[in-house]
Amino acid sequence: MEKKKVRATRTNGRKDSNGVFKAGHNDRSFSLENAEHVDADRSKWNVYWDYLQGYNLADENGVRPERKYLFDEVEYLYYHKQFGDSIDAQNERHEKSRHTERIRNVRQIMEDSRTCPEETIYQLGTKDGYEDPAVFVKVAAELFAVIQEKYGSHMQILDWALHMDEATPHIHERHVFFADDGYGMNFPKQEKACEALGFHPPKPDKKIRPIIAK
């Protein structure tokens, strides 16, 4: 019997009407009591991965190893290490120019919709039929490894999670693009990063909103 085809979907975004997307949604580091769309009993079968700690999976009894860092903490550590010098230098320039209202810390950069991580959701199928999650997660992991190897000079995959506790298995993957801030240091700049990687905007004449100074 011919296997029924399933639809593959991929969507990108940084925010919705509630604000920027939170990493805590993906590794379930929030109270699930009022999350009606989440079956908390199945959350133990979710698969988590981040660039610092690797995989986090439950054993055959559903027991998950304790993690030292949650996704939000992993992302903060990356932003602090990768962009902290640039942020400090920017703040010094703002202070010298008497624009102290422009001074921002690492957390504020992480929560700005222009400089926060971008999130991609992958799904194979719908609640009425979907690909074997074991195959799905294996293919996705291989894809992420290829993406990181090919574009890692200007982007970093921070973390991803396979959710088995909702209607349809799907993966949330979060990454950040970065490029030279003009002073020899890295800063979250998707447009500049894509340009450095050989990609150009479909509307090159469209003005891009600056992201360093408010």
Written description of the protein model:
The protein is an alpha+beta fold and 214 residues long. Helices cover 29% and strands 23% of the residues. It contains five helices and eleven strands, in the order E-E-E-H-E-E-H-H-E-E-H-E-E-E-E-H. Strands 1, 4, 5, 6, 7, 8 and 9 form a seven-stranded antiparallel beta sheet that branches. A hairpin with a 2-residue loop joins strand 6 and strand 7.
According to DSSP, the number of beta strands is 11
Major sheet: size, sense and barrel closure? 7 strands, antiparallel
The stretches of 5 or more residues where confidence is low (pLDDT under 50) are 210-214
The number of helical runs is 5
Notable features of this structure?
7-stranded antiparallel sheet, 23% strand, alpha+beta, disordered C terminus, two-stranded antiparallel sheet, 214 residues
